[in-house]
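Students often ask why we bother encoding 3D structure as a string. The short answer is that it lets us treat folding as translation between two languages. Here is a chain of 144 residues written in the first language.
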Amino acid sequence: MTNILIKSLREFVEGNRSVRKVADDIQLTSELILLVRMMFADGELRAEEIGNFKRICTTAFDIPEEDVPQVLQYLKDYGYETSAADAAQMFEDLDLERKRALLVHMLSIAKSDNELDADEVELIRHTADTLGLSPEDIRQAREV
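And here it is in the second language, the structure alphabet:
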């Protein structure tokens, strides 16, 4: 009980640790914005997509699942003017593996509901083009 109280008090004074982590890393912020856009690309937000987004946040970015709502609120409050193209451009100078990892995450969310919508495919293709990735890079990412 004491630990929970201390954690709550620390978050109140310092802010949520995961939100600070996202706010301090523009590439992470950009990647999360793209993943959120992917969840909405087909016009329907489904529980499977949210669950997959939470899993990716936890496993790939070390953001605890209980912090995801605060991170999403941060992205909503501060990233709403950032387009998918703007977010993808933040990855232009990163290494090929990081770019492929982004595509893997996007594909994973797109396939969460067992349907690959044309708008989801278009967002993935547009992002790949912005990142300078080839169709072969997309195929390799799809195999994951």
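Translate back mentally: The chain has one domain: 16-142. Keep this in mind for the problem set.
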